[in-house]
Amino acid sequence: MKELLRTNDPTLIAFAQALLSGEGIDCFAMDVHMSTLEGSIGILPRRLMVRADEWERARRVLTDNGVELEEK
């Protein structure tokens, strides 16, 4: 698995997951339950992971739909 996206915005994670799912790309959101440990104040980012062999395709899907990603 390779990190595709890291954000504090849970709606962005959901949007990205929907886009990837629509293209048949499996993804996994990590750190979604960390808000329980931090007191639900949103300081710990969530990560969206994809298989390494689908990373470039997944990245293209997100950027083509307006999601800004960090350069890696």
UniProtKB/TrEMBL annotation:
Pfam families: DUF2007. Residues 1-64 form the DUF2007 domain. InterPro entries: DUF2007 (IPR018551). This is DUF2007 domain-containing protein.
